[in-house]
Write a structure and sequence with these properties.
By secondary structure, this protein is α/β, with parallel strands linked by helices. It is built from ten helices and ten strands. The structure holds ligand C2E and magnesium ion (MG) (2 copies). The site of ligand C2E has 25 residues, from α1, α2 and β7.
């Protein structure tokens, strides 16, 4: 499934994040919070990651070719960085799909950057040279290692839902969000507020200079076809 990310100034769809789902035999969709850990333990995460990249780059390439200027974000698990062929697999997905590399953004957590800086740097280098973007996901929930923000030259900073939750009513959460926004802006990163559920949160973040919003307030994660429909509706509104 794909969750839209919205430009907080213009309201236009800036991009989508690909989010894995597992359809159980009863037809229920299992949460990645359950099966990603299990897939990592069982050694299945590499092939799941590869499938998600393949499918999502293929879908995004079609949207881009149809004239929609959108960015695709894909999560990469720390375990995938043990795979010596990870760069090749990502390059293959880009090449086969025809998605321009600057439309792909890889989301990694700060912990992987802290734990395996050399492996991560080596794997990402050829991709970064092509223009693939890099986002730091869930910052503030792990080590909060500020040095990695400059060492990895992230393009995008994602503020975790746990901080957004408390805005704008909780003074402490708001102070932390303000601090993160200021820091990411000074480092000239694009900023995504995650888990925006209310109009008040969206307005607050927009006022404070957060560029992009993602959350149930805008849309839950939806199917590939639903994203196509949303993009076409947006293009029609623009044309009329
Ligand atoms: P994440 O990358 O931080 O993704 C954001 C999560 O927040 C998603 O949960 C999304 O559905 C949820 N979310 C977005 N807006 C809201 C909101 O307004 N309210 C609430 N309550 N939740 C919101 P999801 O899809 O369950 O994914 C959970 C985590 O599992 C992801 O967190 C990511 O770390 C991991 N994950 C998901 N897909 C993949 C994947 O393809 N590969 C890997 N390695 N990890 C994945
Ligand atoms: Mg993510
Ligand atoms: Mg996140």
């Amino acid at each position: 499934v794909f969750q839209p990310k919205v430009d907080l100034k213009t309201g236009r769809i800036y991009g989508v994040e690909a989010l894995a789902r597992w359809q159980t035999e009863s037809g229920r969709l299992a949460s990645p919070y359950v099966f990603i850990d299990l897939a990592e333990e069982l050694g299945l995460i590499d092939s799941i990651g590869e499938q998600i990249l393949k499918k999502s780059t293929k879908a995004a390439a079609i949207w881009v070719k149809s004239g929609h200027d959108i960015n695709l974000a894909v999560n990469v698990s720390p375990i995938q960085f043990n795979d010596p062929y990870l760069s090749q697999k990502i390059l293959k997905s880009i090449a086969e799909s025809g998605l321009p590399p600057r439309h792909l953004e890889l989301e990694i957590t700060e912990s992987v950057a802290v734990q395996k800086p050399e492996a991560v740097r080596a794997i990402l280098a050829p991709l970064r040279r092509l223009g693939v973007r890099l986002a730091v996901d869930d910052f503030g929930t792990g080590h909060s290692n500020l040095a990695i923000l400059t060492q990895f030259k992230f393009d995008t900073f994602k503020i975790d839902r746990s901080f957004i939750d408390g805005t704008p009513h909780d003074a402490q959460a708001t102070a932390i969000v303000d601090m993160m926004l200021g820091m990411a802006r000074s480092l000239e990163m694009d900023i995504v507020g995650e888990g925006i559920e209310t109009l008040q949160q969206a307005q607050y973040l927009a006022q404070r200079g957060c560029h992009i919003g993602q959350g149930y307030f805008f849309s839950k994660p939806v199917s590939v076809d639903d994203i196509g429909t949303l993009l076409n509706q947006e293009a029609q509104r623009k044309a009329s």
